[in-house]
Fold:
Amino acid sequence: MNRFVVVTGTDTDVGKTVATAALAAWLRSRGRTVTVDKPTQTGVLPGERGDIDEVRRLAGVDGSEGVRLPDPMAPVEAATRVGAGLPTLADHVARLRGAAQSHDHVVVEGAGGLLVPLTVEGETIADLASALAQDGGEGAVDVVVVARAGLGTMNHTLLTLEALERRGLGASGVIIGSWPASAPEASDPVLLGNLSFFENLPVPLLACLPEGAGRLEPSEFQVQALEWFAEESSGSASRHSAALAQRLLGPGTNR
Ligand SMILES: Nc1ncnc2c1ncn2[C@@H]1O[C@H](COP(=O)(O)OP(=O)(O)OP(=O)(O)O)[C@@H](O)[C@H]1O
Ligand SMILES: C[C@H](N)[C@H](N)CCCCCC(=O)O
Ligand SMILES: [Mg+2]
Structure:
């Protein structure tokens, strides 16, 4: 069973945090112990609420941060601005492996998109996923890509999948971070086309999170998260989370 789920995105602000919370809530509902980690949290002051606090609130799981920096920028630049250091890749791996000792799954949320440098040496969340995979053996890591629903997402999604592939890290699937409310795909040809694009990717569309999901009450969020990852074809998209469920939860648990 896979231990680490690395949640990356096609960009910043695509819904990684809500997707991380939804994945954590889904795993928890399946009886798994889950923790979440944000290796580099930028744009948040000490005492303010960061992405992990949001995931904690929505999904009811515990969590950790590798480093927190106040400027809303990429990690290396944010660290330079305040003269702070950054954890090394080995520091991140050690912290995450520590978290994995006491949890069935560690869900890791990157900062921005796949190739944003997280360390002074320029390593990215893709390098972190590779390091965890090497450490944990084959199949120890799932990489999930969160993508936008609207115009521009085809290019960003394909670039991200290609970059993963090039690094020998197949994506386990894609999550649409925020699908506009009230089924506008019926009247919006761009959304209709994008839905078909996502459904025909070589990797599964795992979930299509409704716009405003992060504003749901946590109890409701946790109930709905099960439906977002359900196998049935309903609502806006037919979803294919069976493979991920099997990898994360074991055989015969794809519902
Ligand atoms: N609790 C929330 N309620 C409503 N909207 C939210 C909430 N949290 C985030 N959003 C909005 O959802 C969108 C996606 O934000 P999110 O934090 O999920 O992005 P992200 O992909 O995690 O980016 P980052 O790289 O900063 O981690 C943003 O436009 C943000 O303003
Ligand atoms: C501050 C922001 N919300 C993220 N945490 C950091 C995003 C870095 C993106 C860098 C880039 O791709 O240009
Ligand atoms: Mg986030």
Summary: The longest strand covers residues 34-42. Residues 16-29 form the longest helix (14 residues). Residues 12, 42-43, 72-74, 111-113, 116 surround 7,8-diamino-nonanoic acid (ligand 2) (CB under 6 Å). Residues 100 and 106 are 6 Å apart (CA to CA).
